[in-house]
Amino acid sequence: MSKLLPAMVGGILVAGVAIMYFDAQKPSTGRSMTPPDTSDLAQGDPIVAVKVPDVLSPEATIGKRAFDAKCAVCHGQNAAGQNGVAPPLIHKIYEPNHHGDLAFVRAAQNGVTSHHWNFGNMPPVEGLTEADVKYIANYIRSLQKENGIY
């Protein structure tokens, strides 16, 4: 048994190193979690270019109307962000595996302390129900998918 333990530990160590090596060899998707450099953009300019799907689902269409009414003033048209105002939601930072739909609901209801971007804290959004925000999240997810963010 005493000779078996070092062999097991060594095998686990080798497997861990191999996994790290092969993971590092994966091609980059170009979707960094790091906020983009916006120093060349004018105040209020869109931060990212957003491709819009040709057709939105009925739920995403409702979400777009709500987004345009309540969110676009800060997050920009099609959630592209506005330099110096608010971040783009069409960015890897907001992918479903990092910020789930409930994060959008909580942000709208409670506001958000700035933690990924340097735009300051987001205040709560008045006049949106949880259902409204779920439709907005559906719209954002449609845009994200069209732009290669899953």
Task: Write a brief caption for the model.
With 150 residues, this protein is an all-alpha fold. 43% of the residues lie in helices and 0% in strands. It has a domain at 58-146: Orthogonal Bundle (Cytochrome Bc1 Complex, Chain D, domain 2).
Detailed description of the structure:
The structure is a single chain. By secondary structure, this protein is an all-alpha fold. It has a domain at 58-146: Cytochrome c-like domain (Cytochrome Bc1 Complex, Chain D, domain 2). The chain has five helices and no strands.
Topology:
Blueprint: H1 4-24, H2 58-70, H3 72-75, H4 101-110, H5 130-146
Number of helices: 5
Tally of strands: 0
Write the CATH fold name of the domain at 58-146. Cytochrome Bc1 Complex, Chain D, domain 2
Mean pLDDT: 87
Q: What is the CATH class of the domain at 58-146?
A: Mainly Alpha
CATH superfamily of the domain at 58-146: Cytochrome c-like domain
Report Rg: 20 Å
**Beta content:** under 5%
Question: What structural class do helix, strand and pairing data support?
Answer: mainly alpha
From the structure above, extract its key features.
mainly alpha; 150 residues
